[in-house]
Amino acid sequence: MKSNEEVVREAYRLAEGNVLDGHGFRALFTEDGSFNDVPNSLTFRGDQIPQALAGLAGAFPDIHRELLDVHTMGDVVAVELRIQGTHLGGFPTPVGEIPPTGRRIDVPTADLWYLREGKIEMFNCYNAANVWLAQLGANPDFESAIEAAKTTATGA
């Protein structure tokens, strides 16, 4: 049986843009396993897991994860990494899709992988979504947020 670190490293390999094997990635998970995109409050289970990979690769076909540090603590594998790629496809947001910009992203990320009997039970991805969006040119609209807060505070 592969070690927990080997399973996680295989998951990263299968998620690379030049490999992109969503079904192989899914097969590394337990039947009830989950992939949680924590900053965006998204959870993928079962057959949704490969779709999550395909969606990201659609926006960044050359997606690459540069693993900086990997620590195994029993059934938990913690990884510090950088998600890198070129924005060549539409990137979905709650208010619509950001069209391709051709910009490169290099996003600091920390992933926590929880395994049970050699299978991934839960994968929590903590990417710096604010950095990601800024690198795509989608900076936050602070002015609108300030105005909305003023309106709420005054009860108008």
Order of helices and strands: HHEEHEEEEEEHH
CATH topology: Nuclear Transport Factor 2, Chain: A
Q: Pick out the low-confidence regions.
A: none
CATH class bucket: Alpha Beta
- The count of strands amounts to 8
The CATH level-2 architecture is identified as Roll
Enumerate the strands of the largest sheet in spatial order, edge to edge or round the barrel: 2-1-8-7-4-3
* Helical run tally: 5
Instruction: From the alpha carbons, calculate the radius of gyration and give it in angstroms.
Output: 17 Å
State the secondary-structure class.
alpha+beta
- Tell me, briefly, the overall form: globular
Helical residues, percent: 25-40%
Major sheet attributes: 6 strands, mixed
Tell me what portion of residues adopts beta-strand conformation.
35-45%
Overall average pLDDT:
94
Number of domains: 1
Gap from first CA to last CA: 62 Å
Domain SnoaL-like: 21-120
Organism: Myceligenerans salitolerans
Pfam family, one: SnoaL_2
Protein name: Nuclear transport factor 2 family protein
How would you explain this protein's 3D organization?
With 156 residues, this protein is α+β, with helices and mostly antiparallel strands. It has a single domain, classed as Nuclear Transport Factor 2, Chain: A (Roll), CATH 3.10.450.50. Helix content is 31%, strand content 40%. The chain is built from five helices and eight strands. It has helices at 4-14, 22-27, 48-59, 129-135, 142-154, and strands at residues 29-37, 42-45, 64-73, 76-86, 91-93, 96-98, 104-116, 119-127. The strands form two sheets. It has a six-stranded mixed sheet with strand order 2-1-8-7-4-3. Strands 5-6 form a two-stranded antiparallel ribbon. A hairpin with a 2-residue loop joins strand 7 (104-116) and strand 8 (119-127). The longest helix is centred in the C-terminal third of the chain and has 13 residues, at 142-154.
